[in-house]
Every structure is written in structure tokens, then in C-alpha cells.
Amino acid sequence: ADAERMIRRKPGFEGFDVNAIPIDDEKTYDLLCEGDTEGVFQVESSGMTDLVLKLKPRTFREIIPLVALYRPGPLQSGMVDDYVGRKSGATKTEYLHPTIVDLTEETLGVIVYQDQVLQIAQKMAGYSLGEADLLRRAMGKKKAEEMQKQRDRFVQGSISNGIDGGEAGHVFDLIVEFAGYGFPKAHSTAYAYITYQTAYLKAHYPEEFMAALLTSEKDNRDKIIRHINSCKEMGISVLPPDINESRSDFTVPGSNVRFGLAAVKN
Q1: What pLDDT does 179 receive?
Q2: Surface-to-core class of residue 88, CB atoms within 10 Å of its CB (0-12 exposed, 13-18 middle, 19+ buried)
């Protein structure tokens, strides 16, 4: 919002609206694929940057699973490596069961979202969606007794649908590994949109973006130093505080960033 306000002060940009930006902007995807993710929502940690570099998203749809994959469940179960391998074509895409190909096709046979857990229980084992949500909750709590009950219900329901009990048990066990940490797809999509918006601002309005980023971290000396160094790498000069020029926040005179007075210690 701070970056957006500064952009609107530029002549000819008065109507700029971050919610009206194109969703297929090449420069934004280039920035992500190069790993230039400092300050970009959700993807600035080293692990997340590494994942972005491996997956190289070129469409908005490809950013959505990124956010959901970098979670304890998928990371611990090896699903992230599976997804990366399948996306790059290094490993073959395999599906957990022929009956649920349509539910996991979009995510290359990997269970990424909570929604998929509900749909799999419904399709394989004949759960109602209400029952499936109780299954999801039970998985989150990880109570052994309740889980055994649910496993029996899932296997029996699958057998009634003509599915082999052993195969159903295998699918259930894989779901359990994942489900305690899964994101709903809507949550992941909303996050991915903010990831895209912040990446777009950084790609097209780097001075305003970095000034807003510095303002947001004005009380954190280490972050301030890190972001100033980033500005230098980007070819943006950070001008020192000036009693006549500086405002409370970091500002953008021309193509420079001016240090904000509120970030001056004591």
C-alpha cells in the first residue's frame, strides 16, 4: 500500500491500482525465476527462494502450489522433491490411485491442498463432504484411536467401491502424513496473489518498492542494512537523512531512495 501511494505521486500514474495489474507480466516472472525474492511476500526465505528457483513459475497458476508446498508436512514427506522432479520432467508423474487422477492431475499426482483430502475421501471411500471434513480435523489432531477408526472407515468404504483394501490403506497413510499441515487451495491462492503483486511492484517500480520495504522495517537495524545493500546491488542510491528533504518514512526523489527520519536511531 505504501509503494502504491508513492507510485500514484508520479506524474501520469495517479490512477495506478495494484489490483488492476496484468496477471501474465513477463518481467514479474523473470524476477521470480531469477530468485530476486528479497521483500517479496512469502518467498523471501532462503528455502523458499531455492524452491522458486527449482520450480521457475511462469504463470500465476504455478505460484499457487509453491506457497502450499513449503510447509512441514510436504517437506518431511518428500512430496516437495517429488513435485519438483515431476515438474522438471526428471521423474515420471505417478498417481496414488487410478480413481483419483482427476483430483491430483493439476498438482502432478501430489496431494498439495486440504481440498484434495476431502475430495479423495469422498470419491474413493464414499464419505460425505461433512464426514470428510471431520476426517481432516482428526488428522490435524493426530489422536491414534480416532485415526485407526477413520482408517478402518476409509478402507471399508473403498472396498465397497470396488477398490483393493491394501491400496486404500496406502493412500490413507500418505494422506495422514500430509494432512496435519495442508493449506486449503483458496488460502494458497490468496497468498500467491500477494506474492505476485509484491513481485510485480519490485520488477516495475523498484525504488518505490524498496522505499516501502525499508519503511516497513524501520525499527529493525539489521534489516535496514540488508535492504540498503540490496538497493546498491539494484543500482538504487540510498541518500542520507536530510533535514530539508527527508520525511518521516523513506521516500523516492527521482530514481533514488531518501532515508526516512523515523528510522534514525534515538
Answers
A1: 67
A2: exposed
